[in-house]
Amino acid sequence: MPSWYLGKIKYQQEQENGALKSISEAYLVDAVSYTDAEARLYGIVADNTPDFQISSLTRMKLSDVFHFEEDGTASRGGDKWFKCKTFYVSIDDSKGAANAKEKKIVSFMLVNADSPKQAIERIEKSLATMLIPYEITDVNLTPILEVYPYSPEDDAQKVPAGFRPLAEVMAEQNG
Questions:
Q1: Nearest to 26, CA basis, from 80, 65, 63
Q2: 107 within 8 A of 99, measured Cβ to Cβ
Q3: Are strands 144-148 and 52-60 parallel, antiparallel or unpaired?
Q4: CA end-to-end distance (rounded Å), the chain
Q5: pLDDT tens for each residue of 87-131
Q6: What is the largest CA-CA distance in the chain?
Q7: Distance CA 68, CA 26 (A)
Q8: CA distance 1 to 40
Q9: Contact present, 85 and 134 (Cβ < 8 Å)
């Protein structure tokens, strides 16, 4: 299950009239720890923004992130990210059927869309195969600009110049 971290950065941008404007941006990254999230955020942002600082890094509890690239009605998936709160009722019958208790399970999901209405439609489409009835209670626009899920290429460690793989060195010593 992914661990999502919301990272906010700040930097100064020069305007056309020469004045400096403070810019804040938010990104969501999938990482294994705060340290990993910070490193990934630096790797993502450093290419486009030379002088920035991370102003906050918080863990965001999300049960799922739905990213839509294209659908039949739009040429793109949507530039805005909406956080949707859903809940469903689970029945805890571990103490027998006579003592069964209903338990409300709340979950948060993130979806990209152009409007709250489209966000609801996309959540419903994504949860269409869910057998338990659910209810969407909140849909809120987030300041998130981009979402960066984990990809195996991120783990591919680049060997620095002048270094050789350990297996190669061991084979040379034993051979």
A1: 80
A2: no
A3: unpaired
A4: 44
A5: 998 877 777 667 778 888 999 999 999 999 999 999 999 999 988
A6: 73
A7: 19
A8: 18
A9: no
Q: Which residues pair with 57 in a beta bridge?
A: 7
Instruction: Decide if 82 contacts 66 (C-beta within 8 A).
Output: no
Which residues contact residue 171 at a Cβ distance below 8 angstroms, ignoring those fewer than 6 apart?
A: none
| pLDDT at res. 159 | 55
Nearest to 4 by CA among 57, 82, 50, 55: 57
Which spans in the chain are helix H?
Answer: 34-45, 116-126, 152-155, 166-174
Q: What is the pLDDT of residue 73?
A: 45
Contact status, residue 142 vs residue 129, Cβ threshold 8 Å? no
* pLDDT over threshold 60, residue 75: no
What is the DSSP code (8-state) at residue 127? T
Distance of alpha carbon 127 from alpha carbon 135, whole angstroms: 11
